[in-house]
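Task card 7
Instruction: Convert sequence to structure tokens.
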Amino acid sequence: MGDSGEIMPKVDPIINSFNAGEVTPKLDARIDLQKYASACRVMENFIPMVEGGAQARPGLYFVAELKDSTKAARLIPFQFSTVQAYIVCAEEGYFRFFKDGAQIVSAPSTPYELANPYTEADLPTLKVTQSADVLYLATRNHNIRKLSRTAHTTWTLTNFVAAVDVAMTITGATKANPCVISATLGAGGTNPVAGDIVYITGVSGMTELNNKFYTVGTVTTGPLTFQLYGINSSAYGAWTYGGTATKVQFGTTGDNPGAIAFFEQRFMAGGTTNNPLDVYGSASADFENFKQDATDDSAALQYSLLSDKVDAINWLMGEEYLMIGTAGGVWRLGASSTNDPLTATNVIAKRQLANGVKDMDAEMVNDAILYVQRGGTTVRKATWVWEQDKYTALDVTRIAKHIAKGETAALSGITDMDYQSEPMSILWSVRADGQLLGMVYEPAENIYPWFRITTDGEFESVAVITGEDKEDQVWVIVKRTIGGVTKRYVEYFKPHEIFDVYRDAFFVDSGLTWEGDAAVEVTAIAKQAECLVTAANSLADGNKVHFENTGTWLDTHICTVSDRTAANFKVKTEDGTAYIDSTAFATYPPTTTTTTYDGDPLSIIAISQENPAKVVCPNHGLAATTPVRITGALGMTDANDDWTVSNPTADTFEIALDATSLNPYTGSGIATPGATVTAGNGTVEQVAKTISGFDHLEGESLAILTDRGKHPAREVTSGDIVLSYYAHKVNAGLPYEYLLQPMKIEPGAQTGTSRGRKKRIYSMSVSFYESAGVQWGPDEDNLSEVPFGTGGQPTLFTGDKEMDVEGDFDAAASVYIKGVSPLPCTVISLSPRMEVVGG
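Output:
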């Protein structure tokens, strides 16, 4: 009976999908929505899977601190190939570079860096596009730059010179205010006029003029001279000879593009302050040639969008058309027919969408463009719709309108974005308050679930690089407070897939991994006063080691390596003060062997009456000398014994049995492969108890996972953590929680809806995949630990767990699942057992 005295029917609803992600609280009562059943009220540090389950997000591996942690920075992917993928960290005044999970250094401990002209304020709106090993960068506050890589530690940053005329030869330069340049025209060149932009290089003597852009002031002809507007060269060196001045399209304040892209073999740029709706295209396959010629289809071009508003161009993207994102909408630009090339005389632009875009790059994902709307809190997916002969834009934040909103307007909106394709299709976005947002993107299945990533700090930038035959690598900059001091760290997410290996579970943030030298076979242990172990190894004197299966005293003690060579080493006590006397040890290696038969059983279909007998076992895959145990053979029962495989073919093998006079085989039989090992087949591996390298987390309490299980938290002191036992592998870092709460459960009632009726959850069954730690309950304040029973040899659990739940009657019955690092957790489905009052 319930608290009202009414009969309470029991119901067993099931939630087998969470792939609608976290939705706005405004949908809390919309049980009629198709996605309600697979939606969540909370999905924090869980990633919804297309298959339906929810996987705790992997941890963050620490790489390096920014050079200047007082200022925000930006991560930019540099993807030359799948094996040459870099992360460029753009800080105010310089770049630093990362590859293969580490910072590139030019000396053993000196990060390689390259000067840049950008300020902290420039970085959020810095636009990038890449061609081969050159990355182009644009922002309205600076002329376009080219970042080029010629070797691992050889990078250059040069000016992009968008020439509109042949170069003029400089014949003189005055030390005056303003500086006056004397020049002669190149063949076919035209005189500059006031307001033109020129780029000067190659000057000797007055070298202060080199590699800069200038606005032309007063011009005289016969001979040609022109002023460099606003340039006082009085204190410059005296001009001696040489130099060129080239009229260019961009380069000075007001004339720097805010958007760039490649399209039909042209470098495209647009959105300058002076001409916010103009699009410029280079000559075909000549990216720095912007000279226009209406008689030449391959020449450069310029086109002005005819908008009812003066809306700046914020991004460009080359697709079948050149897509143009402006503050007032999205346009497409191309030739009058997609079969024709874009030329100065064959160009047309049409507005496609009225949704203005934010001043940040969009992402091309398959055949769609994902972009942030002007307000910063809506993400749209623009795709071509043939029936309408235009692009349309789906709001992919439609049921998650809260996702990009922080506690205030200033803390709301998306500030950075990148896309990951492997192993899951995810759009990553940074929210202004420092949360990292993710959206799993599977449009073919109408799946666009959002989730939130939190950490002990604030995310400020995200970038993705791909690799050969492995998961994409997601890099972030995180602002953390360590010991009361602001630190900005470059970190990356570890892989999602851990292949059911407990020790590889990395579910900590800003973490590190220590792993000792791998276990190697011990081939001999000398019986002498100074124990000598023969084992091919790469250990070092002073290393601590753990022995296993030697059958000696060594198996139960931690020892210290001494007098090490590549082939052997001597063994000292744990404290390293005395050699181990092994004269009384049992002989190692022992002389006895053991054969076990635990391979996959193989079906026998025939055994011949020959000498030796031939066993017919299709596709057995057994090699010669493999032990095999035959059981269950009928007729020729003498074959039911242990044998050694000889003369194998694809479908047969022979055994040492003279079967010529035996009863014929009549059916059945199983062949089980085995393996023979020397008893006590011993190994030795490096272990440690004091783990160093955590200086970046000094004073913090760390979550720790070892190959022996979850270890109690430890505080970092002088860069070290000290374990309570020795371990071979240690993952340690800042802890975080993973929280999953489906929508309020409305199982229905005999008289209609259960909405508003009191109900309670009294037990729950949850299906897990490769999990090791989680709590569950009816709400965040009433959670019980789920016993996984990892024991002395911890493993990951896949299967169902069921427990009673101490839930109270409530009109808003719900389920709450909470995991805490360093243990993994993947929830496949959950089934609450419920009672409904008056149902």
